[in-house]
Amino acid sequence: MEMFIDPHIHVVSRTTDDYEAMRKAGIVAIIEPAFWLGQPRTEVGSFKDYFSTLVGWERFRAKQFGIVHYCTMGLNSKEANNVPLAEEVMELLPLYVGKEGVVAIGEIGYDDQTEAEDRFYRLQLELAKEVNLPVLIHTPHRDKKKGTYRSMDVSEEHGLPPSMVIVDHNNEETVKEVLDRGYWAAFTIYPHTKMGSERMAEIVKHYGPERIIVDSAADWGISDPLAVPKTAALMRKMGIPEEHIRMTCYQNALTAYSQSGQMDEMDWLKPEPIDQRERQFGNSVLRGGQTPRVEGSDIVEN
Amino acid sequence: MDKIIDLDKAKAFLLEFLQQEADPKSIEWLLVQKEKIQSESSYLKFYMAFGQASRYFKKYLLQPSESQKNEANTLLQGFRPDTWDQLQTARTYLLLHFEERDPTSWVTAMNKLFETGDMHEQQSLYAAIPLMPFQKEMKDRAIEGLRTNISSIFDAIALNNPYPAANFDERAWNQMVIKSIFLLRPLYQIEGADERANPQLANILIDFAHERWAAGRKVMPELWRFVGPFINEENIKDIEVVLQTGDPLQEKAALLACIKSSFDKARNLLDENHVIKEAIETGGITWESIGKEFQETLPK
């Protein structure tokens, strides 16, 4: 079966129906970037519990549906504007960046492009260098072009090699510069806004598959957790070569994020656990009496 | 209750396994980290090293020799290194070098580690509690851990861990056993299962069985182990029901439960099934064999 990676999805806000559909559509691995929750947090403890969820419960939940879950850790640009809180979060981050399955620092960058955002973006670029992790940049939705260029300028100022940086939420206006400067260019497929699948396919036609990454960024808003497989299907219909589809919907994300040393194709190709104790997991996602649907998963009836 | 572990021996014992089984470069890293943790008493360094250990050690199970198994038992009754992996061994080794003189600051430091831990880190921490310098102070944390929905973490407390039997009050102990049954865990791996059996638990489990039967479902055969010593006029009827299910595994479990009973009717049931009774008496049927056989029937 065709395999996909969705390298940007906020699954904490998705249902088990989504997980099931994603697996059925061929998604084998996902990356969940640390982001905000749709409204600003007011306590550092909320960040702590959120980060713990990303490396704990959500990973377990994904596994029950046969999907390998990775995440990125970071302070998002919106919440960087609450400076006292942001400072506390910066103290917390070192505890999480070294955890298993943390594949990047992100999503970080600019929202309003304020001074505070700039300060915490730079601090996190330094953190990424220190722990040798790739960086996932969230480019702003307003004043996008300038914000995107600035994100790259500042990253270069801090000496990060473009090959270690994924610039996300690109569009037709930003893609050329991002690719020319050697960065990974990720595209978020949102229904109605930003990028649609058709536009995405045109971009791949025009620029080819190299360093281009397709993702859904599905979250609590109107969004589509199947955006990656759907875009792949559309690309096929539009006559884009199979290899280009594989690169943009699977391989490029794997190559970019496996630079962390925390993501390995074997995690899903050879999923039998090394640890015999994990062979049968109890579950709480499925309720009593339900039958597990994913063959070879850890789900047992209870 | 708070048994004092010989910490130096424990550290040496854990290191011996790693030296035997892990990459020498990883050992080198471990020893450097250990020194740092000891000398700088920096929380952050300790936490980072605890996390980073996953880059140096694998999750392969330890391969203790028979003499090492015995040694483990001498160090701590019920300590089962064959259920530990290399990574958790390394993490525990680091943890035992984090010296806190008083229980309050130890618990504070540990709680932060528990609260920020990923799945494997939490698993390591819960399994390490019986080796910690302060133990009874960790009771609330261990009980809190049982509330998890992640079964590898639950297992780290409930299975192959001598801590609950030695430290939990009856309420917490019973809750642990009931949840283990609910999650279909291999109950024979619960340390001190027979010693901590109690009539209250037996009653709860009988109610649970009735509830399941009413819904047309089964209960796991190992459940009857906890009822056996408390078989009476009332619940002997349930044992009889199990004996009529036509499921040989269930029947063996019901009869094995009767072995622990001094109730006449339970003894009679055994006599009526003398083939199974004999197999029980000669060690051919044990809770471990029943538990293993049952686990084989679960989806992999």
TrEMBL record, chain A:
Belongs to the metallo-dependent hydrolases superfamily. Residues 280-302 are annotated as: Disordered. It comes from the Bacteria. This is TatD family hydrolase. Pfam families: TatD_DNase. It comes from Aquiflexum gelatinilyticum. InterPro entries: Metal_Hydrolase, TatD-like, UCP005295. Keywords: Hydrolase, Metal-binding. GO terms for molecular function: hydrolase activity, acting on ester bonds; metal ion binding. SUPFAM superfamilies: Metallo-dependent hydrolases (SSF51556).
From TrEMBL, chain B:
InterPro entries: EboA_dom (IPR047715). This is EboA domain-containing protein.
